[in-house]
């Protein structure tokens, strides 16, 4: 009898015995907790926000008050500045929400993710438009008169924005504000150390109605971003600027070396800012559904964050690379500084500067600027 | 003028963000599945990770004494455990209903 019970126990036990052994040696694969780099992220993003805000506002202010958009490039530059400014304005709100478990709610989630996407696409595509415009102006100079009209560029800008909005529709639709299901605990046995009173933690992430859609959508959205938001503009820029450099090197212009340098700077900065991030994004998209060790995931995540910040930095550099590099634009900007200085003086010593004189002063400046910049394209360096 | 406004904005922004870092949360997804079976007695509950949301694949996360454990919902034992937990939950539900019914009747 005894023997048979022993036997029985040994037979059926392997799992049952271990069940009662709390020291059963099994390795628990836990959900991956990412390291917090929040403070670094906040500092870096704040710097990007401030620089981007100042730079792009200055470009917009310059165009709004001094340099009415005259050439095709002007229209593009203004639109790039608007896209970058909107991007930079959305960025702190996104960071704030990510840190506060999306306290601003569903509408903010949709709008911020959507506008982020729209500005990303429009910004990148407009840079491609600028390179095409310069290509037509320099390489296809004979056709340039016909192809580079103001109304033409406005139509193209409208097309770019509409396209950017259309491409962002999936982002707008499938980003949702919700509590992830895996943070809901379904049933707890016993009553020891239950940590049920965690605060509700909302996210603003993808949410699809079905698994099949999720499998497709999670690949399709970043793939579109890679293709339309990076590789397409990259190819257009490489083609256009290579042709421009070749043409410039053939030309007998004393300023050509400076022009070549500026073109190279534009391309190199674009690649340096966006290529690393997009390569990580590509890797992430390709290995989207694969299983990893937590350590590897953490590393990819950290690398992605750093590269993303570098990519964001580009919108601070655009005003310098595109607008302030132009001699005429700098002249306009100098006028603004002078006027602001005068305005400041007026506020400090109101009696010495009457309103009439300062307005007269501004208007004369405007007139003189208009005359000086009557002829010529913005591609003056 | 502009720079003052910008500086004020920036400082507000940074303070706002720093104040809120305490609430910063991580939404953890399973990196992969466990390869060994967990004893049922070690399990206190479970939650569901779904590919339809932010995570890359479906998983059943068992809450064990040793922490949360990521398991493959395609495995029989995993779904068996889930059923067992559900049954227990159902029993608790029924008994509590039984107890509260006369109370509700009044």
From TrEMBL, chain A:
The topology of this chain with respect to the membrane is: Multi-pass membrane protein
Location in the cell? Cell membrane
Record keywords, A-Z:
Cell membrane, G-protein coupled receptor, Glycoprotein, Membrane, Receptor, Transducer, Transmembrane, Transmembrane helix
Keyword Cell membrane among record annotations: yes
Q: Which parts of the chain span the membrane according to its record?
A: 42-66, 75-96, 116-136, 156-178, 226-249, 261-283, 303-325
Answer yes or no on keyword Signal: no
- Which SUPFAM superfamilies does the record match to this protein? Family A G protein-coupled receptor-like
* G-protein coupled receptors family 1 profile domain span: 55-322
Q: Name one GO molecular function term.
A: C-C chemokine binding
- Top-level lineage group: Eukaryota
- GO biological process: one example: calcium-mediated signaling
> According to its record, what are the GO cellular component terms?
external side of plasma membrane
Q: Which Pfam families match?
A: 7tm_1
Classification via PROSITE patterns = G_PROTEIN_RECEP_F1_1 (PS00237), G_PROTEIN_RECEP_F1_2 (PS50262)
What family does the Swiss-Prot or TrEMBL record give for this protein?
Belongs to the G-protein coupled receptor 1 family.
Q: How is this protein named in the record? A: C-C chemokine receptor type 6
Q: Which gene is the coding source of this polypeptide chain?
A: ccr6
Automatic annotation (TrEMBL), chain B:
What InterPro entries does the database record attribute to this sequence? Answer: Chemokine_b/g/d, Chemokine_IL8-like_dom, Interleukin_8-like_sf
Q: What GO biological process terms does the UniProt entry carry, in alphabetical order? A: immune response
Q: Where is the signal peptide?
A: 1-24
Tell me the superkingdom of the source. Eukaryota
Query: Is this entry keyworded GTP-binding?
Result: no
Might you report a single GO cellular component term? extracellular space
List UniProt keywords, sorted A-Z: Cytokine, Signal
Question: What name does this protein carry?
Answer: C-C motif chemokine 20-like
Native organism is Stegastes partitus
Taxonomy of origin reads: Eukaryota, Metazoa, Chordata, Craniata, Vertebrata
């Amino acid at each position: 009898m005894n023997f048979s019970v022993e036997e029985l126990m040994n037979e059926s036990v392997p799992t049952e015995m271990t069940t009662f052994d709390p020291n059963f040696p099994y390795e628990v694969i836990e959900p991956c907790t990412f390291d917090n780099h929040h403070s670094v992220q906040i500092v870096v993003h704040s710097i990007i926000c401030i620089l981007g805000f100042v730079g792009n506002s200055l470009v917009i202010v310059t165009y709004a008050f001094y340099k009415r958009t005259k050439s095709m490039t002007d229209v593009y530059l203004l639109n790039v500045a608007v896209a970058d400014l909107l991007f930079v304005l959305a960025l702190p709100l996104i960071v704030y929400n990510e840190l506060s478990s999306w306290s601003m709610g569903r509408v903010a989630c949709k709008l911020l993710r959507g506008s982020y996407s729209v500005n990303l696409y429009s910004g990148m595509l407009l840079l491609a438009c600028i390179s095409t415009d310069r290509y037509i102006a320099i390489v296809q100079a004979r056709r340039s008169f016909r192809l580079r009209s103001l109304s033409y560029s406005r139509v193209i800008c409208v097309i770019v924005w509409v396209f950017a909005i259309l491409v962002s529709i999936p982002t707008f639709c499938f980003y949702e504000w919700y509590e992830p299901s895996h943070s809901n605990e379904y049933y707890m046995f016993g009553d020891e150390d239950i940590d049920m009173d965690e605060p509700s933690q909302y996210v603003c992430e993808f949410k699809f109605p079905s698994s099949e859609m999720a499998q497709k959508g999670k690949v399709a959205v970043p793939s579109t971003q890679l293709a339309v938001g990076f590789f397409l503009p990259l190819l257009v820029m490489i083609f256009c600027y290579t042709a421009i450099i070749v043409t410039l090197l053939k030309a007998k212009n004393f300023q050509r070396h400076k022009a070549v340098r500026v073109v190279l700077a534009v391309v190199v900065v674009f690649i340096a800012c966006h290529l690393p991030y997009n390569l990580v994004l590509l890797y992430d998209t390709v290995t989207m559904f694969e299983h990893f060790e937590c350590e590897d995931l953490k590393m990819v995540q950290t690398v992605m964050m750093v590269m993303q910040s570098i990519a964001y930095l580009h919108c601070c550099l655009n005003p310098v690379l595109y607008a302030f590099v132009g001699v005429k634009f700098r002249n306009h900007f100098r006028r603004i500084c002078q006027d602001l200085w005068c305005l400041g003086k007026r506020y400090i010593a109101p009696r010495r500067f009457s309103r009439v004189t300062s307005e007269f002063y501004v208007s004369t400046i405007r007139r003189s600027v208009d005359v000086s910049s009557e002829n010529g394209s913005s591609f003056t360096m | 003028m502009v720079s003052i406004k910008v500086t004020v904005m920036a400082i507000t922004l940074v303070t706002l963000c720093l104040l809120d870092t305490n609430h910063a949360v991580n939404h953890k997804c399973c990196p992969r599945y466990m390869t060994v079976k967990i004893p049922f007695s070690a399990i206190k509950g479970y939650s569901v990770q779904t590919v339809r949301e932010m995570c890359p694949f479906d998983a059943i996360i068992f809450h064990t004494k040793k922490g949360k454990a990521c398991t493959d919902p395609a495995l029989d034992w995993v779904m068996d455990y889930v059923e067992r937990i559900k049954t227990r939950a159902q029993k608790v539900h029924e008994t509590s209903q039984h107890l509260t019914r006369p109370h509700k009747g009044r």
